[in-house]
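Session log. Operator J.P. requested a structure for one protein chain; no other inputs attached. Running the standard single-chain path with token output.
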Amino acid sequence: MSPTTIRRRPLTLLVPALTLLALAGGCGKPAHIPDLGDVSGTVTLDGQPLVDATVNFSPAEGRPSFGKTDAAGQYSLSFVGEYTGAIVGPHTVRISTEQYIEREDGTTDYVKESVPPGYNKKSTLTANVEPGENSFDFELSSKPGKK
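Structure written below.
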């Protein structure tokens, strides 16, 4: 090999390496996104899966996270955009089935609340979200205080 070839090889490897390093520096979450923990679980009412309920985790400060239960009563929380989970720390949890559904013809249907106020408007439910994976199951009763 000539001395010229030896000098070029490190440069040809250095440029792609620096490019990758610069791109990697831009990866990760933006500064305005707080530390989040992934949150999922199951909600039941009187031992049955609670379907189409909204699960809301509200921290003392900051943006709440929301999820919707499926046919099995399972949910996972979304924070904002592509970010999932909830802010790390204590939360008040609210679970509600009340909703308005807009139909294609422009009319709106109202789905009445089937969950007692102690689980939503006057919620006594809490959860402490930790970094990483969190699972919170909520076993609700239509007659709170009785199981």
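Operator note: Residues 5-26 have pLDDT under 50 and may be disordered.
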